[in-house]
From TrEMBL:
Limits of the Histidine kinase domain: 603-797
Keywords in alphabetical order: 4Fe-4S, Coiled coil, Cytoplasm, Iron, Iron-sulfur, Kinase, Membrane, Metal-binding, Signal, Transferase, Transmembrane, Transmembrane helix, Two-component regulatory system
Limits of the PAC domain: 399-449, 530-581
TM ranges: 276-297
Protein's UniProt name: Oxygen sensor histidine kinase NreB
Matches recorded under InterPro entries: HATPase_C_sf, HATPase_dom, His_kinase_dom, PAC, PAS, PAS-assoc_C, PAS-like_dom_sf, PAS_fold_3
Catalysis: reaction(s): ATP + protein L-histidine = ADP + protein N-phospho-L-histidine
Co-factor requirement: [4Fe-4S] cluster
Function: Member of the two-component regulatory system NreB/NreC involved in the control of dissimilatory nitrate/nitrite reduction in response to oxygen. NreB functions as a direct oxygen sensor histidine kinase which is autophosphorylated, in the absence of oxygen, probably at the conserved histidine residue, and transfers its phosphate group probably to a conserved aspartate residue of NreC. NreB/NreC activates the expression of the nitrate (narGHJI) and nitrite (nir) reductase operons, as well as the putative nitrate transporter gene narT.
Species of origin: Pseudomonas qingdaonensis
Domain spans labelled PAS: 450-527
Cellular localisation: Cytoplasm
Amino acid sequence: MMRLRCLLFIGCLCWPFMANAEQASVPAAVRLAPAQQQWLDQHRSLRVGLVLQAPFAQFDRRLQQLSGVNVELMNWLGRALDLDLTWRNFPDQAALEHALAGGEIDLAPGLTQTPASLRRWLFSDPYMRVPQLIVGPRNGSMAVDLERLAENERVAVRMPSSLADYLRATYSNLNLQGVPAERQALQLLLSEQVRYAVLDEAQLSRLSRENEFSDLVVVGDIGLPQLLRVGSRRDWPILADIIEVGLQAIPAKDLEQLHNRWLQPRYPRLSESPGFWQNLALLFAALFFSCVFIVIWQRRQQQQLELNLLAARENIAKRLAREEALRLSQFSLDQSTVGILWVHWDSHVRYANRAVENMLGYTSGALNDRPLIDIEPNLHMDRWLDLWKRARASDEAAQRFETQCLRADGSLVPVDVSLSFLRFRDAEYLVVFINDVTERRRALAALRESEARLKGIAGNVPGLVFRLERNPAIGDLEFPYISEGSEALVGYSPIELQHPDMGLRNLVHSEDRADYHRVQDQALATDQDWSWQGRIVTRQGEQRWADIKASTRNLRDGRVVWDGVVWDISQSKRAELELARSQEQLRELSAHLESVREEEKARIAREVHDELGQMLTVLKLETSMCELAYAGLDPGLNERLGSMKRLIAQLFQLVRDVATALRPPILDAGIASAIEWQARRFEARTQIPCLVEVPDNLPPLSDAKATSLFRILQEALTNVMRHAHAHTVQINLGLDGAMLCLTISDDGVGFVQSDQRPTSFGLVGMRERVLMLGGSMRLDSEPGEGTTLSVRIPLNNDRS
């Protein structure tokens, strides 16, 4: 009866928190155009691609069932359009798009429209809006404006992400804290390391169901919603139209219920709160103790009568427990791995456990009543009595020693002996504990041999081997080991370098000491490996180049050690510096030759244009004069003079083309005009649209810089024409502080940069031109993603 009442009471408490199950609405038939219906009848089986990310799509392995907002949406469309859907699951967006490129899927829900994705998918209109929310503590402000936040108020957001890029570009005042996932952002908010967290509604709905985040609430919306669309194959545009019709047929109420069921943040209900069940448990505990008190009060007389019986049972139980403890002690002694002997004052053994019998090679009971001198030949009676007296007087110094025991077969075994005095039943004994230390001695010998081998190897290494150690208790650094190679490398002995005032830092050259301190201090602060190259000064004042590499290890006692080597790289460093100096001289020579060649081209272009142009003009005038004077005399002569005039016109055009190829005259009008002219020539030659963006007020450039930028543009457009198979080309010329930036981008096939041929002299030539101007060049390309060439050169540079 009492149990029934408790169940009824619990049911009454839990009834208000029970939720009714929602019934899914049955979709109505969708009306399609005859052509759409005919196509759909031929393609009833469609393959749907899903990116498994809760709450949009998730797979229950126990039930072998898919669920989520995108799954329910596609099931609704499948029922409305009478489709046979086949599901394909993918771990991320990249795998989904790879499957689309391989023709493995036909459509996919829950996609967002980007410029890159428009090339792969046909998108429907948005069917759901997922806002980006600002989350804060429940006891804080309930309405937050990001533009008014102070710089010391940190905001957590997942990085890298488009949301973080938007916040950084829109709210320059924000102090953003990057985290790898949304869960870490909310945990930082709970620990008060940040003031707010920004995440999308879908992730918040997934995390808000956990009790850990029950004290967090939505305090604002940043105004950048994520619009979910259905993407389909680009080669089936009619499928996109059918999906659009099906989405328009979904009632707005059903979409709202779908959004509320999966994406609306839900916080733990009262029945899920630990405090609710704790209070309920306290209530039942109070009721229970009240009942117990009543029962105890009613049975007080009965318990008084039972006390004597319980006392008797207690005595019997204690006696049985003592007997059991005695048997357990005997069993423990017999089964112990430590040899135990009970020895009387006359040095005869009264008890020996199985461990000592097996250790010394005796049969069971064979050691009883034997004198200890049979086991330890050097233990004569006088020495035994001395040990007895010391142990009886609790002399700690005499209770432990190492010796050798004689086995039954006559061999000796090294043992560790420990003595303890014992009184038992009016008798006195020495308990002798014996441990076989054969393996320990072997391990110790191996350790000593290993240390000797290590010291020998370290001493023969052509460098300095060291160990840097930090004790976490005091935080001081010390060198417990430095090899003997320090004498040959720096002229100091290991003891001198191990002194606290010496160390490796004092060997570093004064000009390189700041960089050495920065590298080493960073490694010591983060317990990481470190590597440094620089100059050191020997005891004799000689400068040497050294390479220091150290790897870190954490010991079991909490200490952190760095094992490292200092190599002498003076010879290789000098060769490296000489090689760099030689490369710089070659680059200067190449720049000079390039300048001379451009000047020669300009000179030849002027001579060809001026000299040949004048001569051709005179020749054309002479021909015209002949035509006026003698053409009427002979019809054949008139025909030949006309042919000569056509050849002279062609020669005029050839001279112009040669002069333009050697040095375009448009360069005299500025690099911006030259870029625009070259882009139009590229469009006329290839029929590829070319978008040009140049600044209005560009500072004047030297002739060398303008010519080099123009030649780089010519080479880049030539590569686009030959290899890219592009549809459009974009050229941007801009200023970034004191740097001039030229960017050429195409939407062609791209390439894998690791597959680039080493004999690509076009790219090598462009890179050398940029380096001669003191700038930098970057090439970005991926297969199917096009190619982008970026060139940055300084506006003011002595090399120009």
